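Feature request, filed as a ticket because there's no other form

It would be nice if the structure record came with a short human-readable summary line next to the tokens. Right now we just get the raw output. Example of a typical job, pasted below so the devs can see what we mean:
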Amino acid sequence: MAVSHSKIPVEIRKLMVDLRNEGKSLFEIVDVVNRPRSSVQYVLQNFKKTNSSETTPGRGRKPKLTDRHQRILLREIKQNPNLSAPKLADSLSQNANIKVNPQTIRNVLHDKGDRGCVAR
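Raw output as currently delivered:
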């Protein structure tokens, strides 16, 4: 039976490559690892290209804020911890000419280890 659409673990990818290097056919590998033929074929093609069984990183959206802008935000927060995300977004749009949603600023601060809290 077919397996759900999920990432194939590295161990299974390595097993696929090892079986192929032993001279097993594509259909024999499919029977052993119980994965779809197209998935096995993709893993083997990817190994042939990159010579690695690791997954290649996705393209994804480029980050809106550079490392420099993130450091500026952290510096402003350390100088004045009472600044809100909308105020930081406004200052960033005025100073760096970048329009950013306040939630993006919260995400950046959270990733950098700064947890927001409500003052007493």
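Something like this underneath would help us a lot:
Residues 67-111 form one domain.
The chain is about 55% helix and 0% strand.
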